[in-house]
Amino acid sequence: MRSSRAAVLTVVAVFSFATVLPAQAGTRTHYFELINRAHDRLVALAIAPAGSDRFQPEPLGEAIDGGGDSATIEWAGEQCVYDLRFTFGNGRAVVYSDIDVCRNRSLRIQPLRRGRAAADGVAVDASPATADAAPNP
Fold this sequence. Notes:
Mean pLDDT is 75; it is low at 4-23 and 117-137. This protein is α+β, with helices and mostly antiparallel strands. The radius of gyration is 20 Å and the shape is globular. The chain has a single domain (28-133), classed as Immunoglobulin-like (Sandwich). It is built from 1 helix and 9 strands; from the N terminus they run H-E-E-E-E-E-E-E-E-E.
């Protein structure tokens, strides 16, 4: 009798937990390594859902020096694909579009190309990103 009561409680607990999961499954924490291969210091980061232009500043902690310095950032989000806007110490900025942070674990920020700045001062180029694939489980 006691073991059947425990089994019923276990089944009820599992189903209760399963009904709570979908409500919380939308937001997940993303950990992503940024490798600054540009020549200038990276001083600011803003993140937006891909194609939305709704950039929100994301703290870097400290500036990431150019030439290969790196840092791991963390943020909560509902989707996997984002646009990342990086601002450098010299005032220039670049947007890396459509970065899949679920399939990739890092991003190498390439040196800025001259003459690529848009009218609003943001250089937009979806191709310079070099994302490293996440290891297969």
